[in-house]
Amino acid sequence: MFKALRRWWKYMVAKVSGKLEESADPKVQLEQAIQEAQEQHRKLTEQAANVIANQKQTQMRLDRAVEDFEKANASARQALLLADEANKEGKADKATDYNQAAEQFANRLIALEKEVDELKKQLLDTTQAADKAKQMVSQNSSQLQKKLTEREKLLSQLDQAKMQEQMTKAMNQLNATLGEDVPTFEQVREKIERRLAKAQGMADLSGASVDTKMLEVEQAQMSAEAQARLSELRSELGLAAPEKEKAEAKPAEAKPAEAKPAEKGSGGS
What we know:
The chain is mainly alpha-helical. Among the domains are: about 35-150; about 185-250. It contains five helices and no strands.
């Protein structure tokens, strides 16, 4: 039972996370990722600054210990010289005091010498840590700069993707049925093309009828001209015209003959 509940809970979490991921704005997610990277760089820089500060502080402590060591060494030498001078002058009490002071300075030298050695080791470790911290900050800074440069590229690609999605959506709306009473773009275009084709077909038929009549007229004219040319050639050759042509020519000759008397009557009057 417990395993089933745990499996169901994981499924619901994955489902909700998936829906949130689908509905999330990539631009906002990108800005969040950049802000997170900047925050990590800031924290890394602060940690590196603390490491470097520790190295510098160790260096200052070492410098101060070396300075104290040199002062204690000089004081011990001076006490020994004064003790030797007091012995030469027969001042035993002063010589004893100077020797005791020299011994105290010697103890101080031993302590300072140990401190200097320890500080030198610490300085070596802190210097290595500081160099490593500087290197990490430099590398992380380069990566952050690379991400900032890539952000501009990704934002440009995101804008292009959004524009392409809008164009695709608009085309899908044109090609899709908008409603029961509204035809699609493809249907309207097909209807217009069908109507245009029909109109062009009717125009072609009308043009064909006119062209047929014109062709008949042209053929009749060509036939008459051909018969006239044949008549001329027969006359030149002294050949008689065919019976059919003679029969067709008689009515044509009779008409001018009937017209002559009319012309004479008009002249007499």
